[in-house]
């Protein structure tokens, strides 16, 4: 029997991913990653690692698991990579408990145990502090604090990289969010150097994987992932990201491959047709180079 009560654990207003079936045996779940989802998940994972040079020999990678669908898949992908012979790196699986409801914490632990992910869970008072410090708009503060708490733990474990579960749709939604809401052209990069933590890099190995395949994989596996376990903002603050998600979905009806076009736009910026840009905090106008 599927435990229907688990659908009530998510914050109000969050989309709940209901499994299609009972939890499948672990061996079947693992096999499906490299068989059923070879094209849309496994190959894309490998491609991102190669194309963006995400892993180097001797890396020690902290794989950050929130317990949501994306990071659970990411953990399994790293394990598969290791099993398939790439052992030039080490991984540590970390989960930060920002003040989860006990039921959510239990779901996280149960999923990791079932999926054989040896996760280290540690506490950080993120929810409470973000709410106290940032009142009605805790999301930005919470995101920053969460990132800091993850980098800190990775560093403590002697890791030089922190892997996050952002995927293809997160990337194009970020591009569109910046364009439509912030008036800037800026995407989410597959890797970047941490500003406040020396010799630490952030990597995003799911960069090329479309969210719909992650959802399908999780639902077919019979796993109930955490769905936005936020205890603070929940439905209180309208989330522009959901609106952008819908917008892109609607655009797909009129423009062929619009998602890929948004993605490619950040690969094909034509510097000869741009009014201005910023680098290292310095603003430049096309006029600065016009007469040269
Ligand atoms: N509490 C946490 N502990 C460990 N890692 C986390 C935590 N919260 C977020 N992360 C990491 O940051 C990534 C992005 O966080 P975000 O809250 O945007 O997750 P998401 O889009 O819901 O993804 P997921 O499905 O993995 O939760 C996650 O995929 C995960 O790698």
TrEMBL record:
Source organism, top-level taxon: Bacteria
Keywords of this protein's UniProt record, alphabetized?
ATP-binding, Nucleotide-binding, Transferase
Q: What is this protein called?
A: tRNA 2-thiocytidine biosynthesis protein TtcA
Q: Does the keyword Nucleotide-binding apply?
A: yes
Q: Which InterPro entries match?
A: Rossmann-like_a/b/a_fold, TilS/TtcA_N, tRNA_thiolation_TtcA_Ctu1
The tRNA(Ile)-lysidine/2-thiocytidine synthase N-terminal domain, residue ranges: 60-223
GO biological process terms held by the UniProt record: tRNA processing
Looking at the Swiss-Prot or TrEMBL record, what is one Pfam family this protein matches? ATP_bind_3
Positions bound to ATP: 64-66, 70, 94, 165, 170
Q: Which GO terms describe its molecular function?
A: ATP binding; transferase activity
**By its UniProt entry, which Gene3D superfamilies does this protein fall under?**
HUPs
